[in-house]
Structure formats: C-alpha cells, structure tokens
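cron nightly-structures :: item 1 of 1
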Amino acid sequence: MALMADDVVVEDPIGKSAPTPKASAVRGKDGVAEFLRHQHRRQPVADLTCEETFPSSDPNEVAHILVLRSKFDNGITSSVRGVFTYRVNDAGLIANMRGYWNLDMMTFGNEE
C-alpha cells in the first residue's frame, strides 16, 4: 500500500464483475486494501507470470501480459491471462491499475 497514491484507482477487471459487483472501480488506499484482502481470501494468487511488457512513450505508464494462477484450499486451481496496465503519478506512486480480463477467460483444474 506504501507504493500507492492516496487517490489510487483499481479496475481489476474493468467493468462490473464478481470481484467488483457494485462498481467498475475501487478508489482510494482504504478501498483498495479492503478489495485486496477480500480477493486474497476468495482467490489467493499462487503464481504470477509476466509474459510480455509494453512500455509506452509516457514513462509513467506500462502494460503487461500477465498470467495469474491461484490455488484454493480444496485443491482446485484457476488461471487467467490478461492485459494489466499501470500508471504512476509524478511522485512515482501507483495512481491507476487496470486489468483487461473476464471470468469467461478463466480456466479451472485440480491440483495434481
């Protein structure tokens, strides 16, 4: 949370979804902290792989293709691949994070 601006905005995924059913964005450090706690309880990320990074001509913005793999207590696993963008403010703090993915893209399996 120390890396985030006070007015940070997180859209992960963009649009209304199971993680954000009431709004398309989570705003402010307190809101993001609660969102992350809730998400980690529901779906702890066990592994994150960055497949590719796309810097922009603006040094404060970058996009990554990430694969997030989760493992649940019951042995079920999930995986989702998406585009995730990040923007920092002039102080170098994260001002915006956006995730381009949806539940239809998520795959499920069993731990072997």
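cron nightly-structures :: done
The chain has a mean pLDDT of 89.
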